[in-house]
Amino acid sequence: MEAIEKSGIDELYNKLKSKEMQHLMKIHSEIRKALHLFFTKKMFYEISPVIVAPITDPLNHPVYKASVDYYGFPYGLTQSMIFHKQIALLSYDKVFIFSPNVRLEPVERGSTGRHLAEFTQVDIEMKDVTREHVMDLAEDMFIYTTKEVSETCKEDLEYFGRKLQIPGKPFRRYSYIDEKNRYGNDFDMILSKKEKNPFWIVDIPLMEREFYDREYENKEGILVDMDMYYPEGFGEAISGGEREYEYDKILTRISKKGQTEEQFKYYLEFAKKGLPRTAGFGIGVERLTRYITGFDRIEEVVPFPRIINKFSF
Ligand code: AMP
Ligand code: MG
After folding, report:
1. Closest Cα to residue 205, out of 185, 186, 177, 179?
2. Residue 239: CB within 6 Å of ligand 1?
3. Measuring from atom 17 of ligand 1, which residue has the nearest CA?
4. Ligand 2 centroid distance, CA of 234 (Å)
5. Which segments of 117-237 does DSSP mark as H helices, in order?
6. Quick one: which of 117, 106, 125 has its CA closest to 77?
7. 115 CB less than 6 Å from ligand 1?
8. Strand pairing of 278-284 and 172-175?
9. Cis preceding-peptide flag for 205 (omega within 30 of 0)
10. Residue 155 Cα, ligand 2 centroid: separation in angstroms?
11. Which residues surround ligand 2, an ion (CB under 5 A)?
């Protein structure tokens, strides 16, 4: 282990001193600035991230448990702020968070080039809007950010030989079920490699997602949700959707996923009192930086990546 640590530190030292990292840090910083400006101009309020809490996003895939001893109570490290952002809309109708998420991903995910064990998600949620509304907003956000960064980081992008295409609206939509039938399990990455512009995959089956995305009233087992994908094989960019907000429906969905009310008891207390009807999405900023700079692997684009199953200073 000591040898691994030593080689990790040498590698990081050289990486931080490189011209490449100077350009990357500027681009990453301009991306964050553009995202921040976009949402504040749209009259979103920014709220502080919650880092530890008694409940967090259960996710739809297994991760190792990350917890802290909070004055004798086992609290989880935030995997996403889904529950907190939904509840925050009791106060104001548009919120965003630059939310640090810790997800101790399975070791196999170390090879995707898209996964870190800690990343920042710009997590947004709005009250009384539909999926259509948040998809339109996400497209505007993507166009605004890529335009801004193309202008403010012209030379930095040239250094990496990257010329960004600014897509037109609306982005193309694919149905989850149709494309899975056509291409099989890897359909999303097949589409991501084929496409030249960002695109959506919509209407995801219930068992493929967490319990909190809303089910269509007239299409059983299908959710009013979506993922946005980058082109050129960069894979998933955004996940989002409308949310379940009615207490009984939430209970049914928890049970369909084979989860227990006990797991979500604090959230259910809020749901019982009445949750706002909301929709929203989250976009990972390291993945966006990777796409904008065109790097092979997500861990290359930030100074201090938490690399899956590897010593990370
Ligand atoms: P999710 O709702 O789980 O899809 O997460 C929202 C967004 O966060 C994803 O669309 C990605 O952009 C980003 N994301 C999720 N997991 C990771 C990870 N392990 N490393 C980096 N970014 C991630
Ligand atoms: Mg996702």
Report:
1. 177
2. yes
3. 115
4. 13
5. 131-152, 154-159, 176-183, 187-194
6. 117
7. yes
8. unpaired
9. no
10. 32
11. 239
Q: Name residues whose C-beta falls within 8 Å of residue 159's C-beta, 6 or more positions apart in sequence.
A: 19, 20, 23
Q: Which of 119, 135, 302 to mutate to test the pocket of ligand 1 (most atoms within 8 A of CB)?
A: 119
Which of 103, 142, 227, 297 for mutating ligand 1's site (highest number of atoms within 8 Å of CB)? 103
| Residue showing tokens 């359909």 | 187
Please work out, in degrees rounded to the nearest 5, the angle formed at the alpha carbon of residue 212 by the alpha carbons of 104 and 190: 65
Residues 6+ apart with CB under 8 A from 160: 23, 293, 294, 295
C-alpha–C-alpha distance, residues 123 and 127, integer Å: 14
Does ligand 1 lie within 6 Å of residue 56's CB atom? no
Structure tokens at 74: 């086992």
Residue 2 confidence class, pLDDT cut points 50, 70, 90: low
pLDDT of residue 6: 76
pTM passes above 0.70: yes
CATH, domain range 2-301: 3.30.930.10
Cα distance from N-terminal residue to C-terminal residue, the chain: 13
Q: Higher confidence at residue 311 or residue 233?
A: 233
Ligand 1 pocket: which of 98, 236, 289, 290 to mutate (most atoms within 8 A of CB): 236
Assign 195 to helix, strand or coil: coil
Q: How confident is the model at residue 206 (pLDDT cuts 50, 70, 90)?
A: very high
Which atom of ligand 1 is least distant from the CA of 228?
Answer: 10
